[in-house]
């Protein structure tokens, strides 16, 4: 009987195990998870703090018990500390007892994820929290209650920093948001985030750009700009460090950034060893020579399905590469992007379409602008697009994703038929207009 | 100098004239419109009755004066009553003076639209209205005020009937909705409209299915089921009759249904004569052997652009055919479809995927179901899909449109990357799940 071991039991690992069980009713599946919980909805954690997710239990998709019923063994508080592909063996540490033991595998699926980065000045400070696991969320909510928190400092303005800011405000907690450079929400172009800055102001958030915390003393955070602010609670969201140290010496290739390169089946460089989730390095679907590491749920779920099928022997299911589609709601705004990161676009010849119009018929109550900044390669490839609006950003991103995936170019956007009715769009629809502008620009440049 | 005459100055005709002027600064352009107004937003008319369009003026995109500034001559209240392609001439009647005259053209663009059908029992009855033009809207709003209307009868449950029902309710006018068969809102499958029926009930709308008005007497409508209901105002929305009678004997081909077949450039069978808008018969993009007549704004605008380019000599711009993408908001629901009509699907071998899941992460406040019924041909062609939900129907329709347009099949839906965050979707996203179900079904049937 084939024995499959999964390292990591959150989004990627748990989904891979479920998919595999569905395809292979008989194989032996074991999950080792170093944390307390498995299979929780980490994207939903900020929203339970703010109350938009009413019940904590709704965040838990599966437990070791529910997996047990599917005959998948789950060991939580078990950290895999070594991999020995030659002997098809792992070294595992039971974090509760300290016991170290060996385990064999026929197929190994690596989904160890990352751990939140913590700046040195904040290490070991009681008031400092991160929000990466259900345990972290529980700890934050208990801390808010126990310490009767009325104000907090949020460090970092990525997905976590912004979502935590929104949800603390939902609890009427005053927030100081500290971000190390001048670009709030760096996933999207600095020149597009004015509505987020305005919202922060409207929400009474104390924004500190170009600042970092240098130390915490007597309940106050000292910033690098010499400001001192009350900080009874600090939540840090400044990115993840991949949990791939345990692969040292294993022969599994890990990049300088700690990521694991995989191919279209999720295979690493080592036979029978797969990787997925936040640690995987794959490629962009539309610009395959650029490597992609997208720490989001969709790529993890898609690769889980791909790996399960490959182990099952269904080689027709391939991971096509990613578009990096992402979105965030921040109070009454939606902001997101698709395609390469800003830094990657700089290396490729391109022109930019910057367009805005109403997200629905302009004569309808509540109409307001949607804006796109789209980067187009000289053959019409949509390298990247960033969007912001009060509504309809998700629709345009998903439409662009479908369009780009099947080879659609910027000049083809004129042809996308839209579901039009005044509450939803315009007959001269947003992406069509972007396409018309692209055609004009390409003609002007002799590219069309 | 090339002389272009446009018959009809609403969506299709006005857009064609504008686009042509943009491309051809020097040609001679004349529009004949038999109605009082040109270039108004007919899709927005119901929403001004209900107040969601606050200002009447917002519904008017252009006037004869604004066209005059672009050197486009507009003659309203002028009906074209004959076309003589041999001599490149038209016969035009000035409806104000009764004068009949001839006009020459080098290129002729036909966008005469349709006129609302009226059942014989209602012809000439003062209380009876239709809602097709700005004049109609003005008449309805004046009638409501003058007669102090508190209750009304709406006949027909298509786009107009449903939108008028919603907007009369917004004004607190009691509505009886009369529909001739048992299928409310026939654009979508009868088995999917339960939420609309529930909404009608919640809104206190008096629904009469399988009924027609046989006569109106003493302010009451007598129904074919022998019921008698108060009817101080009646608004009829039971479809359009194409205004193509004036083409009789012209040599321009008109189908038995009164439609004008056109090719990918909008050309009719007669040289230098184009047609667009509600009267054009084109084909479905994804099933080209099925003729399409889609009386919606997007096709009209797209064909206007195509025709203008063709007259300009840009033959690379083609009308690819239609997908029939349509959507309606009805109070807090969204409902729409894409692809062939139900009747057309019956003639093609297919299977059906009927799927529902939450339109956003299920643990988020306000999550509820989105349902799709998708008809798949045996090669995976998405023949038709109908959707209903409280949110996100437009997003899925536009995404499907982009996907189908570039050749995407049902089994490829698993690969569409989505903009995921809990307020917007799920990592196991709706269209992906539909794709997984399609793959399973195709495997089961030996089609994959």
TrEMBL record, chains A, B:
UniProt entry keywords in alphabetical sequence: FAD, Flavoprotein, Oxidoreductase, Redox-active center
GO MF term set: oxidoreductase activity
Name under which the protein is recorded: CoA-disulfide reductase
Entries under InterPro entries matching the protein: FAD-bd_OxRdtase (IPR050260), FAD/NAD-bd_sf (IPR036188), FAD/NAD-binding_dom (IPR023753), FAD/NAD-linked_Rdtase_dimer_sf (IPR016156)
Pfam families xrefs: Pyr_redox_2
First and last residue of the signal peptide: none
Residue stretches making up the FAD/NAD(P)-binding domain: 2-291
Cofactor: FAD
Keyword check for Chloroplast: no
Domain of life assignment: Bacteria
């Amino acid at each position: 009987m084939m024995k499959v071991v999964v390292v990591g039991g959150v989004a990627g690992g748990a989904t891979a195990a479920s998919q595999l069980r569905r395809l292979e009713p008989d194989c032996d599946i074991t999950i080792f998870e170093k944390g307390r919980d498995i299979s929780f909805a980490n994207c939903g954690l900020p929203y339970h703090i703010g109350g938009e997710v009413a019940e904590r239990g709704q965040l838990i998709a599966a437990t070791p018990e529910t997996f047990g019923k599917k005959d998948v063994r789950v060991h939580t508080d078990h950290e895999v500390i070594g991999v020995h592909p030659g002997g098809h063996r792992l070294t595992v540490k039971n974090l509760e007892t300290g016991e170290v033991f060996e385990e064999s595998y026929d197929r190994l699926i690596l989904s160890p994820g990352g751990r939140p980065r913590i700046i040195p000045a904040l290490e070991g400070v009681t008031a400092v929290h991160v929000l990466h696991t259900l345990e972290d969320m529980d700890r934050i909510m208990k801390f808010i209650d126990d310490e009767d928190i009325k104000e907090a400092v949020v460090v970092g303005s990525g997905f976590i920093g912004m979502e935590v800011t929104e949800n603390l405000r939902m609890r009427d907690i005053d927030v100081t948001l500290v971000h190390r450079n001048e670009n709030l929400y760096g996933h999207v172009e600095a020149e597009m985030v004015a509505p987020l800055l305005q919202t922060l102001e409207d929400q009474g958030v104390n924004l500190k750009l170009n600042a970092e915390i240098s130390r915490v003393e007597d309940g106050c955070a000292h910033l690098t700009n010499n400001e001192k602010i009350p900080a009874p609670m600090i939540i840090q969201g400044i990115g993840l460090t991949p949990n791939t140290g345990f692969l040292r010496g294993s022969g599994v290739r890990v990049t300088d950034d700690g990521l694991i390169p995989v191919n279209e089946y999720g295979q690493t460089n080592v036979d029978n060893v797969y990787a997925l989730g936040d640690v995987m390095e794959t490629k962009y679907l539309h610009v395959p020579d650029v490597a992609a590491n997208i720490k989001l749920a969709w790529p993890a779920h898609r690769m889980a399905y791909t790996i399960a099928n490959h182990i099952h022997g269904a080689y027709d299911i391939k991971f096509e590469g990613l578009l990096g589609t992402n979105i965030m709601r921040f109070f009454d705004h939606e902001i997101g992007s698709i395609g390469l990161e800003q830094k990657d676009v700089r290396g490729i010849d391109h022109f930019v379409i910057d367009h805005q119009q109403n997200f629905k018929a302009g004569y309808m109550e509540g109409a307001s602008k949607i804006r796109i900044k789209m980067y187009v390669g000289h053959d019409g490839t949509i390298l990247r697009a960033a969007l912001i609006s009060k509504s309809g950003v998700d629709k345009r991103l998903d439409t662009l994703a479908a369009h780009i995936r099947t080879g659609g170019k910027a000049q083809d956007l004129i042809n996308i038929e839209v579901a039009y009715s005044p509450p939803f769009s315009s007959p001269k629809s947003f992406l069509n207009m972007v396409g018309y502008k692209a055609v004009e620009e390409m003609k002007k440049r002799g590219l069309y």
